[in-house]
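Tokens for chain A. Residues wanted.
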């Protein structure tokens, strides 16, 4: 369980700027009130799906989608992110606590396609090299391209020379 911390407008803008021009299924793991999913859809990322366990936040997400005119166009599902198969996801947004990052990194490495990009807000993945970053302080977001993450993991596992 991760406490809900709503993303500010600049965090949302920064996260989606790192997904600009991309295509394919976009998911927000722990989607909170749905603002990132709605904005992703607005910017052309489709399908756009949020996974959230908190029923109140799911209701709020669906209300937000309805207010934006996207009811039935975006999806918010009450599913445990650990039990969701992410193999068809090309854009993954993760604004979760640092304690969740190591086990989540293993899940993402195991399931995401090479072409996938992960955008982390608030806290980076500690062992992954970011492809790019945007913003400062609490507004900062990091993008990770899975092909580069796998290459770095493989070279460190092989004990590449210094």
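Reply:
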């Amino acid at each position: 369980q991760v406490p809900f911390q709503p993303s500010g407008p600049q965090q949302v803008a920064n996260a989606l700027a790192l997904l600009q021009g991309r295509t394919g299924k976009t998911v927000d793991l722990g989607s909170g009130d749905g603002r990132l999913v709605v904005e992703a859809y607005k910017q052309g990322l489709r399908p756009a799906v949020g996974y959230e366990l908190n029923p109140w936040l799911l209701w709020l997400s669906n209300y937000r989608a309805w207010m934006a005119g996207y009811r039935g166009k975006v999806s918010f599902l009450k599913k445990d992110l650990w039990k969701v198969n992410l193999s068809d996801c090309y854009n993954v947004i993760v604004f979760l606590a640092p304690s969740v990052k190591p086990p989540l990194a293993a899940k993402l490495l195991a399931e995401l396609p090479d072409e996938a990009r992960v955008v982390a807000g608030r806290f980076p993945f500690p062992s992954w090299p970011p492809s790019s970053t945007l913003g400062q302080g609490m507004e900062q977001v990091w993008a990770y391209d899975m092909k580069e993450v796998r290459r770095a993991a493989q070279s460190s596992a092989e004990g590449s020379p210094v």
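Residues 78 and 113 are 24 Å apart (CA to CA). The mean pLDDT is 93.
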